[in-house]
Amino acid sequence: MSVISPDVVKQVALLARLRLEGPALAQLAAQLDEILQYVQRLQAVQTDRVEPTSHVLPLSNVLRKDEPRPSLNQQAVVELAPATQPPFVAVPKVLETS
Amino acid sequence: MPSGELAAKTIHELRDLISRGSISAAEILDDVLSRIEQFNGALNAYLAVDRGRIRRQLEGAAAPSGRLSGIPVTVKDNICITGEETSCASRILAGFRPPYDATVIERLRREGALLIPRANMDEFAFGSSTENSAFGPTRNPWSPDRVPGGSSGGSAAAVAGNLAIAALGSDTGGSIRQPAAFCGVVGLKPTYGRVSRYGLVAFASSLDQIGPITKDVTDAAILLSVIAGHDERDSTSAPKEVPDYAAQLREPVKGLRVGVPKVLEGSDTVVQQAVRAAAEQLRTLGCVLIEELELPNIARSVETYYVIATAEASSNLARYDGVQYGFRATTGSRPPPTAKNELTEMYVRTRTEGFGAEAKRRILLGTYVLSQGYYDAYYLKGMKVRTLIKQDFDQALARCDVILMPTAPTPAFRIGEKLDDPLQMYLSDIYTISANLAGAPALSIPCGFSKEGLPIGLQLLAAPFREDLLLRVAYAYEQATEWHRRRPA
């Protein structure tokens, strides 16, 4: 039995801002299904009293001194953008015009 | 000196020659650059080599007393260097020139190293063969129809083929060690937190580490001593002193306990034989073998990894949307009915055109395991099994000083062999992944050759922050064997 259908893959792709159609979608759905079938083996591991590990080092609430210091040059950073209207980054319009 | 002779040397050999005044930094650099010119067309270990920019470093005020003064160091394409293109071998970052240096780059510069960007890799370090590079695969210098391993395949192939003196790679699930094994060189993944990740383009932030790929153990120790250490710009870097690893290499290994886990089964016979012979060699050197070491949950490491790593990757890669840097797709004149507006359509087109197949697979897998309804079954479950895997290591390393196992289940496989079968590709990481999940340091060192003349890697693992033990045992093994002296024709 499959774990994930092409329709679900398409929906997840949309959430991840990717477009998948046709044979590419079918192939990817089949591959993801095979991988997820394999991953299902995790369910057999007994983890009732086990705490999750998100991080291996015993470090928490690491803070640096709250003092001003130089940061990256604003112009140099804006210039990295593929489209700019200095001093701004330019993006396609978001608001609908009627 | 004949052409190629300097490029074939190690960091420590070149340091001796420089300090005696026999050679100059320019001679070394030019020899490496001419090797690259001659052989990179066939190997594709480097994505681009800007001779002029690289040579200009010779004019700078080199630190003559630096530990790497005049030594060229090759850098994987996911480590930021000011003004140098850093693309992660992805179309989506093509043309990106960071406005800052990664901390490891600052440290290399401070010691007088000359940087050679930029080594090929699997796109965003997603892969075990360097075939997922958007700019063509790297070939294995031992056999051009084989992969060099991955994801740091360009770094490993460059070092093995004498197109580099030494290199930096990054390792999230084996990406330094497995290519080092496939290319017959030394690769070290440090303890999580030992080396700053500031300026390393993130793949899976709880697993990623930068580390050295070198021609021998001494060079790995030298390079690690330079790049390791606390960095306040990486809140996960450990505030711990860095020992002089190279100075401790000759400490005796007699009496050290070497654990040999049961998991040896499952790899090729030739790999099992080479690793077994290496264990016997260590026994001859005075180490005590602890046989049949139990690591019961290590068999679950691939599935645990592909839940945790893809979850983190999908989150880290959300930033590539065509707005702040890199590639932006041009959108049509009006948004198609599926898109909410022109901006969303730009995101979708940019990501669909900019990411390769494996990046898409991992983003989708990660998005799925993090989505509502599946989070507990996959991501939370994965994090709990990660705890068990870490406990296995903690318990095993209470009984022994280092653990020995293969780096990879096979020698280098053929180009194209696993490309259409992602699960088989993922399974080639089966021995390397657990060190990342546990945060432990691990090293790969050459320990033999297959009948076809392909290198085999021996992996050593130790408790967190015990790189000194790994390097000592590896050094003793290296001194007793000749594997590391062989180079591809």
- Encode the helix/strand succession of chain A as letters: HHHEE
Report on the biggest sheet of chain A.
2 strands, antiparallel
One letter per element, helices H and strands E, the order of chain B comes to HHHEHEHEHEEHEHEHHHHEHHEEH
DSSP strand content of chain B: 5-15%
Query: Could you say which structural class the secondary elements and strand pairing of chain A correspond to?
Result: mainly alpha
- Count of individual helical segments of chain B: 15
Q: Could you tell me how far the N terminus lies from the C terminus of chain B, measured between alpha carbons in angstroms?
A: 19 Å
Q: What is the class of one domain in chain B in the CATH system?
A: Alpha Beta
**What is the C-alpha radius of gyration of chain A, as a whole number of Å?**
23 Å
Summarize the structure.
Chain A is mostly helical and 98 residues long. Chain A has helices spanning 6-15, 22-39, 74-78, and strands at 84-85, 88-89.
Question: How does this structure look, described?
Answer:
The complex is a heterodimer of chains A (98) and B (489). Chain A is mainly alpha-helical and 98 residues long. Chain A contains three helices and two strands. Chain A has helices spanning 6-15, 22-39, 74-78; strands spanning 84-85, 88-89. A two-stranded antiparallel ribbon of chain A has the order 1-2. Chain A is flat, with a radius of gyration of 23 Å. Chain A starts with 5 loop residues before the first helix and ends in a 9-residue tail after the last strand. With 489 residues, chain B is an alpha/beta fold. Among the domains of chain B are: 11-256, Amidase signature (AS) enzymes; 326-354, no CATH class. Chain B is 36% helix and 12% strand. Chain B contains 15 helices and ten strands. Chain B has helices spanning 11-19, 25-43, 51-56, 103-110, 153-160, 177-183, 217-227, 269-284, 301-316, 342-354, 357-370, 376-399, 422-427, 433-438, 467-480; strands at residues 72-76, 114-119, 166-171, 186-189, 209-214, 257-261, 288-293, 402-406, 442-449, 455-462. Chain B has a ten-stranded mixed sheet, sandwiched between helices. The relative contact order of chain B is 0.14. The interface between A and B is large, with 51 and 69 residues.
